[in-house]
Known about the structure:
The chain is of the alpha+beta class. Helix content is 38%, strand content 28%. The protein is built from six helices and 20 strands. It has a nine-stranded antiparallel sheet, with helices on one face. The radius of gyration is 21 Å and the shape is globular. The two termini are 41 Å apart. Residues 5-29 and 368-375 have low confidence and may be disordered. InterPro entries: FecR (IPR006860). Residues 67-169 form the FecR protein domain. This is FecR protein domain-containing protein.
Amino acid sequence: MKSFSGVPRKNAAFFVVVLLLCISPLLVFAQEVGRIEYLDGIVDIHRGGEIVELFPSDIGFSLEALDTIQTGPDGTVQFSISTQKRRGTSVSVGNNTTFLVEASLDPGGTKTRIEVFTGSLSLKVARLTGREELSVRTESAVMGVRGTEFEVITAPDGGVLVLCEDGSVSCQDQNQREMIAVPGTGVEKVPGQSISSVNVDPEEYGDFRQKWRETRMEIFRSGAPVFFRAYIQQFRRTEPRFSEAYAELEGFDTRLKDYARRSSEGPSSIGSGELYRFRAEISPSLARMRSIIPLYRQTFFRLAELLRYYQESGIAGDEVIDGVKVSNFFRNFQQSLRGERLRIARVENWFKLYRGLGGEGQESLMDEFFGPGEGSLLDEF
Length: 381
């Protein structure tokens, strides 16, 4: 039996052990940002440039900055987020969810960001200090919190719903319009509309959440050709740029890993001048990748979600986009699905290794916020 990541489940535990033994010398600089406290079903993680499946026996597994985690149709995971002194935030992740954890833990303060590509998650955030920040980003909205309990739900049409159980959550769209979610007042951002508030009795959150998902699914089904066209065309625009940047960085793979290994052996194992010259040499390639991977990765994971819905319904299969049938595109996309995820995992690992070498300025794989006019591809429809 295979997992959704393509690794046979019966061999995955052995694969995890062998992989971690092989790559552990390269990850001595890896920055722990949290630990898994519970998991069930199919869950995997990008680690060391590979896709590693996790099991209930992996409770306690550490999460590192720039980790991407994905849950399958039956997968759930709960993890804690570390700050400099405590583990004050708990995150519960639902089925069919893909997200990235980013963090900066330094004397100037703690910044933690979670980018949700698909699916849903809920957070219980302890009261943060003035030097701690936590935010959640989706394709079309950013949520910033201090201390609260809330959930973020995304839909296949690009819609986002934020429901708050306690405290308050600041929600902004790509035009930096702000709405506040509090108990009894949620926030919604759907394609083609401005961010808005929705009134809902906290005791009816469950029913409201279900009806909201059903409504967004109906909208998705009725407009499937529009959704498919937007993301397929975006994928075709971004994939060549990603591939070009990937090929450049791949040329540094052996040397980057060698420098990481040598650095792990101690400060005297590599000269500061030598390391400085290498960082200067690789930085332009990292910058080019940094400019494309946020958009490419969001598009890729959204298409992976749309593939799942297409396989379940077969809708719009005969639709022709730029001379290619949707059915043919998704067939080819499915065949390349694991290979593309591996490329993304390797890029994340290259950035992680570069960060461990003391590289600055290009280590983040997230935008600070949206660029001018940036947001959901479907806002224009």
